[in-house]
Amino acid sequence: AGTPAVRLAEAAPEIPAGCTVKAPMAGLFRDRHPAGAGPLAAAGGALEAGAVVGFVEVGPLLLPVIAPEAGTVADIHARAGELIGYGDAVLTMEPVR
User: Fold this and answer.
1) 37-78, pLDDT tens digit by residue?
2) Residues 6+ apart with CB under 8 A from 56
3) Partner of 66 at 20 to 30 A CA spacing, among 6, 12, 43, 95?
4) Cα angle value 97/71/49 (rounded, 5°)
C-alpha cells in the first residue's frame, strides 16, 4: 500500500571531506584587497579560521569572504574580476588534521 520509504542514508548525497567557502553576496570577486600586493589564498596554501580569502565587490563596498575553519586550499573556483552569485563556491578547503 503506497510507495516504499526511502532511507535517509540512501537519499542524502555524499558530502565531500573538504569545506566549501561560499560568496556572502553577489558581485565581482576580488582575490586581493586593492591596497594589497597578491592573492589572499592560493592552491596548497594554509588558512586559519576567520582568514579573509577574497572580497565581493558591490559598487564601492568590499565584502570579505571568510574561511570558516582552518585548512589547506584544495581548489579555487572563483577568478579575479568574475561575476559571482550569492552562495557560489569561491574555494574548497581540506581541514587540518
Assistant:
1) 899 999 999 999 999 999 999 999 999 999 999 999 999 999
2) 23, 24, 25, 26, 27, 28, 29, 30, 62, 63, 65, 84
3) 12
4) 115
* Residue 11 predicted with pLDDT over 90: no
| Contact between 81 and 93 (Cβ < 8 Å) | no
* Full strand arrangement of the beta sheet holding 89-95: 19-22, 89-95, 71-76, 46-47
Number of Cβ within 10 Å of residue 72's Cβ equals 15
Q: What is the pLDDT of residue 15?
A: 36
The set of residues, in sequence order, having a beta carbon less than 8 Å from that of 76 and lying 6+ positions away, is: 31, 41, 42, 43, 90, 91
Q: Which three cell numbers stand for residue 70?
A: 582552518
Instruction: Give the three-class secondary structure for 11.
Output: helix
Q: Are 41 and 73 in contact, with CB atoms under 8 Å apart?
A: yes
Task: Read off the C-alpha cell for 45.
Answer: 596554501
